[in-house]
Amino acid sequence: MYYIKDAKIRRMTDYDGAPCAEVGVLPGAVDDSALLVYIVEDQREEGYEIVRILTNDADTATDWFDNNLHDAFQDVTVSGFTGSTVMTPEDERSKFQRELLIFGDLKRQLGEHFRQVP
User: Fold this and answer.
1) Using CA atoms, how far apart are residues 44 and 62, in angstroms rounded to an integer?
2) CA 83 to the chain's CA centroid
């Protein structure tokens, strides 16, 4: 399971023609990677749904996700949740999404950002 230390909206972007929030997520566990999580509005899932998750193998203190000079990005949307003896991969993904949306005031910020999209 992925533990969240911090989460902030980096920018609004586009995903398959729909407005999408790019959220930077810093890990709570030492060995976990920083994430970029892409969230769209969805009336079925608490108002929002994660549609893409990227990791970065670079040092977040010096690189974050802005260096495209190496192959730092890895799409883990499907492979990032492996499951356990008590949870399926789908359950882990749903739990991560719920925990991300209740982290700080991220859900309120998402609402504000999506309302500003023309």
Assistant:
1) 38
2) 18
CA-nearest of 62, 59, 49, 55 to 20 is: 49
CB 41 within 8 A of CB 114: yes
Report the distance separating Cα 80 and Cα 85, nearest Å: 16
User: How much is the pLDDT for 72?
Assistant: 66
Comparing 83 with 28, which gets the higher pLDDT? 28
Contacts of 76 (CB under 8 A, 6+ apart): 35, 53, 54, 55
pLDDT tens-digit readout, 34-84:
899 999 998 776 799 999 999 876 654 555 555 555 556 788 877 778 778
DSSP one-letter string for 4-44: EEEEEEEEEEEETTEEEEEEEEEESSTTSPEEEEEEEEETT
Q: What Cα–Cα distance (Å) separates residue 15 from each residue in 2, 21, 37, 81?
A: 24, 9, 12, 21
Residues in the chain: 118
